[in-house]
Amino acid sequence: RFSNVPGQPSLLARDSNLQQTMGSLEGPSFLDVLIMNTHYGCGRKCKQRITCKNGGFVNSRDCSKCKCPPGFTGDFCQREDYGSMPSCGGVLLAEEQEKELYFTTTPGKTCNYHIKAPMGRKISVVLKSVKGRCEHGCGRDRVEFKVDVDPRPIGYRFCCPEEGSRRFSSSSSSLPILLTSTISSSSARLLYRL
Q1: What CATH class has 30-80?
Q2: Half-sphere exposure of 122 (CA within 13 A, CB side)
């Protein structure tokens, strides 16, 4: 029997920071598409073998290019994608001293930052505030932190003001942060350090 208690989620993520990754109605994720392409052998039609970076896979509609996970771009997913918002996005270096980042986007735009640390070091983050369309799954307006070593899965997503004051760390020396606005403006304020 299916449980439905008003105001309570039907499923709870083991990691509470992943709660908003469930139930998004934006369509298949990058991993969903990769799994389907692998299952149906879409890449086998490509005679030329190419190497995709950052978790990308061969684009079976154009065998000379790769399909890239969110946050990466280029024919072989070799470059960071800074998003579509002018004068927003880039690479930031984490240091021992805490730094603050505040960024915002307008509807239909994205802004991506890639925080980097020295090899073997991890990045600590405190999410201070987030503004966006507050909805289950954070499918339209959100900030997403790709904390895993593998950039393909959906990361920690937040879109509701009450989700501020979260603490977490990256699993590697790189942390892509993706701010997406579909319907309303989105913003995020965070602190980061080694």
Answers
A1: mainly beta
A2: 11
Which CA distances in Å does 99 have to 21, 45, 152?
27, 48, 27
Asked if residues 84 and 93 have their Cβ atoms less than 8 Å apart, the reply is no
Say if 30-80 and 82-193 have the same CATH topology: no
Residue 27: pLDDT above 80? yes
User: Which stretch of 3-17, 66-80, 104-118, 169-183 has the lowest confidence by average pLDDT?
Assistant: 3-17
User: Domain boundaries in the chain?
Assistant: 30-80, 82-193
Q: How far apart are CA 27 and CA 111, in angstroms?
A: 20
Q: Between vectors from CA 177 to CA 25 and to CA 23, what angle results, nearest 5°?
A: 15
Q: What is the largest CA-CA distance in the chain?
A: 53
Average pLDDT of the chain?
92
Architecture per CATH, domain 82-193, reads as: Sandwich (2.60)
Total residues belonging to the chain: 194
114 pLDDT tier (thresholds 50, 70, 90): very high
Residue 119 and residue 172: Cα distance in Å, rounded? 8
CA geometry: angle at 187 spanning 55 and 53, to 5°?
A: 10
pLDDT in tens, 6-24: 767 777 878 777 787 776 6
Listed in sequence order, the residues at least 6 apart from 124 whose beta carbon sits closer than 8 Å to its beta carbon are: 167, 168, 169, 192, 193, 194
